[in-house]
Amino acid sequence: MEDPWKREFEFAVEVARKAGAEIRKAGESEIRVMTKSCTVDLVTKTDERVEKIIIGSLKEEFGEGTHCFIGEESVAKGEACVLTDKPTWIIDPVDGTTNFVHGFPFVAVSIGFAVNKELEFGVVYSCLEDKMYKAQKGKGAFCNDEPIQVSDVQDIKKSIIISEHGVDRSPEKVTKIFSTMQKILCIPVHGLRGSGTAATNMCLVACGAVEAFFEIGIHCWDIAAGAVIVKEAGGLLLDVNGGPFDLMSRRMVSANSDTIAQRIIKEIEIFPVVRDDALVQKK
Ligand SMILES: Nc1ncnc2c1ncn2[C@@H]1O[C@H](CO)[C@@H](O)[C@H]1OP(=O)(O)O
Ligand SMILES: [Mg+2]
């Protein structure tokens, strides 16, 4: 079958590479840090500039009328975060901003593309490692052009699981997050990890370095691209309650297999979050 989104996919890879080069360069000079929702929710001029570069390049190439854009920093400034049937780019210019600010070496550019609310392709460029992860629906997943596959480990006791703790430090939420982590750690699993970027975490599931990554609180731009990459590498995505994955719900389990996913889901203590598409628009 003809590939209707080939041009968009190839362009996304090039834009991600260009954005990653900008991030690397910016990391060499002083980084000016600002905050968003709270003192640990960081943003830099680089996040804003790189998002402008990405969206600007895409608009120039594909026009503004037919394509829609959901970008982390544009939403922070009040743009809509609603997925329609139109071709929609879902962008995190700097995933792992806290890592970027501290020089912790995992920072990714994440570009997902959905049509009719279904993800068609995803590109994650882990720019400090120079790893380009990409996948198109039905065409497999790749890292630097080599095919990648999820791990075949089915025994949770032989797994490594990733989770993160987000930016909400209210004691009730932190208690739930750590209680879940404690229960999983004590199954026991081989280890718990976290790279500090959701997009990279998903690529670690996709290439078989870990068996699963789950989180409550992530946003659509953190995981849109990674979702395609995990699926195309043979993995699966679920809601944290075991139901179907919903990109806008801010809840996700990505895993190499249903067995591993269900075992983790048994332990997850769910707490409420406001859906991405329920965020109040400021514009
Ligand atoms: N409120 C939140 N809760 C959980 N994860 C969040 C979050 N806000 C951002 N993240 C993302 O989760 C990972 C670390 O927890 C990063 O990918 C980070 O993306 P960011 O660096 O683009 O903000
Ligand atoms: Mg992010």
TrEMBL record:
Protein's pathway: Polyol metabolism; myo-inositol biosynthesis; myo-inositol from D-glucose 6-phosphate: step 2/2
Protein's UniProt keywords contain Metal-binding: yes
Residues making up the signal peptide according to the UniProt record: none
Subcellular compartments: Cytoplasm
EC assignment: 3.1.3.25
GO molecular-function terms, A-Z: inositol monophosphate 1-phosphatase activity; metal ion binding
Gene Ontology BP annotations: inositol biosynthetic process; phosphatidylinositol phosphate biosynthetic process; signal transduction
Obligatory cofactor(s): Mg(2+)
Keywords attached to this entry: Cytoplasm, Hydrolase, Lithium, Magnesium, Metal-binding
Binding residues annotated for Mg(2+), in chain numbering: E72, D92, D95, D222
Reaction(s) the record says it catalyses: 1D-myo-inositol 1-phosphate + H2O = myo-inositol + phosphate; alpha-D-galactose 1-phosphate + H2O = D-galactose + phosphate; 1D-myo-inositol 3-phosphate + H2O = myo-inositol + phosphate; 1D-myo-inositol 5-phosphate + H2O = myo-inositol + phosphate
InterPro entries with a match to the protein in the record: IMPase, Inositol_monoP_metal-BS, Inositol_monoPase_Li-sen, Inositol_monophosphatase-like, Inositol_monophosphatase_CS
GO cellular component, one term: cytoplasm
Chief site of localization: cytoplasm
Oligomeric and partner information: Homodimer.
Family: Belongs to the inositol monophosphatase superfamily.
Protein name, as recorded: Inositol-1-monophosphatase
